[in-house]
Design brief:
Helix content: 25-40%
Largest sheet: 6 strands, mixed
Shape: globular
Number of helices: 6
Number of strands: 6
Order of helices and strands: EHEHHEEHEHEH
Oligomer: single chain
CATH superfamily: Flavodoxin domain
CATH topology: Rossmann fold
Length: about 200
């Protein structure tokens, strides 16, 4: 089994990386392979709602970040964890630009895979960031993995997240719950979805 972790911070080794590394180490200890992709600090193109991906089978824009993650999804993952720093009470805009494209063009490759969001903040805004990221999962039939507290870790300067012992424990619990759900879901059949009904509120 394999879990993809997306680091939505422009800092490869910042506090978001510390939180996700704690998850990855615990998953590996549970016998689950992990692969982490960091979005980095280069501009990320957003979705333009052209819907061409519905015919092409992938986003029409080709860039190394999207291509890398899309290839990992095609190879197959069993779970997904997305981490983000808090910017003005929300997730990193570059991360959301990437996720908009991924979830519109590659939703079928992630559906029914357990997922979790991780928010990293100095002080506040973790709740709204957590909520924003979870919406990607809950619109795509992805069971959301719980922990014993909301998935947030605190730290401002790089490295400060190491001092948030409760936050890091929350990450380990999250990882163990992910492993537990993956093992349980592997031995069960997934629901058969109905054909989607779409209703316009404009008459």
């Amino acid at each position: 089994m394999k879990v993809l972790l997306i680091n939505g911070s422009p800092r490869h080794n910042g506090n978001t990386a510390i939180a996700l590394n704690e998850v990855a180490r615990t998953l590996e200890a549970e016998g689950i392979e992990t692969v982490t992709v960091a979005i980095g600090n280069q501009p990320v193109r957003g979705c333009i709602a052209c819907t061409a991906c519905t015919k092409k089978g992938r986003c029409v824009f080709s860039d190394p970040l999207y291509d890398n993650i899309f290839a990992i999804l095609q190879e197959g993952i069993d779970g997904l964890i997305v981490g983000s720093p808090v910017y003005y009470g929300g997730a990193n805009g570059s991360l959301c630009a990437l996720l908009d494209r991924l979830f519109y063009s590659a939703a079928s490759l992630m559906a029914y895979k357990p997922a979790a969001a991780v928010a990293v903040c100095r002080r506040g805004g973790a709740g709204s960031t957590f909520d924003r990221l979870n919406k990607y999962f809950t619109i795509n039939n992805m069971p959301v993995v719980p922990s014993h507290y909301w998935n947030s870790v605190h730290g401002a300067a790089p490295g400060e997240a190491e001092q948030d012992l409760e936050g890091l424990q929350t990450m380990r619990t999250l990882a163990r719950n992910m492993a537990w759900m993956l093992r349980g879901m592997k031995s069960s059949d997934r629901p058969t979805p109905e054909s989607r009904q779409r209703t316009s509120f404009i008459r």
